[in-house]
Write a structure and sequence with these properties.
The protein has 5 helices and 14 strands. By secondary structure, it is α+β, with helices and mostly antiparallel strands.
Amino acid sequence: MTKPEICPLGVDGILVRFARSLSEDANTRAIAFATQLKSADIKGVVEVASSLISVRVGFDPALITRQALAQTLSEQLAQPKMTGTGPRRLWQIPVAFGTDHAPQLAEAAAMAGVTPDQAAAEITGQRLRVIALGFAPGQPYLGMLPPHWDIARQSDLTPQMPNGALVAAVRQLIIFAADAPTGWRHIGQTAFRVYQPDTPAPFAFQPGDAVQFCAVGDAELTSLKDRSDTNGGAQVSVIT
């Protein structure tokens, strides 16, 4: 197990890094440590945010020095609270893989060495984890797909990817939070909104959540987009 690194980050931040490359262990440790710090309620800490393999700790220099915070973080690392680090919630989200909604599925599947049908079956057949939120508000990075899904990003950008697009690269999936350019390949489409700014809880996901996709037809997805009583037909349950 790699020893965590405590690094300065800007004038009011510290980065706690658990590895130099992405692994399930490093990601699990980062998410667990972020949860631990939020519960610790350290004076002067104004933000705790986990990423793929690290945790950013933002602080108010008027309330705590960098040296004092680094010492506190070292003490917290020495007493890890790893209980309850598994998924807390399971999301089941409909996704369409038809040609109109997945224009690059065949290309991505070929790069992964499978057929489009096999690709859809693999994506819906396993439970993924929200390993980080980023790039856009509430936008999830989901992983990890099997090793043959370690496909590269495109060399060129797709000018605009629609909100709810399911995209793939480097053994990960993303559900797009808003219309935006990307170098990831468009392999499916949901009606699910990961970011709803006008609601009490604008971010649907939390790091560590589990996600299971279920395949639906193009017509059913279109129907889900037109409904206002459900967020894209998604269901969420608490894992006990």
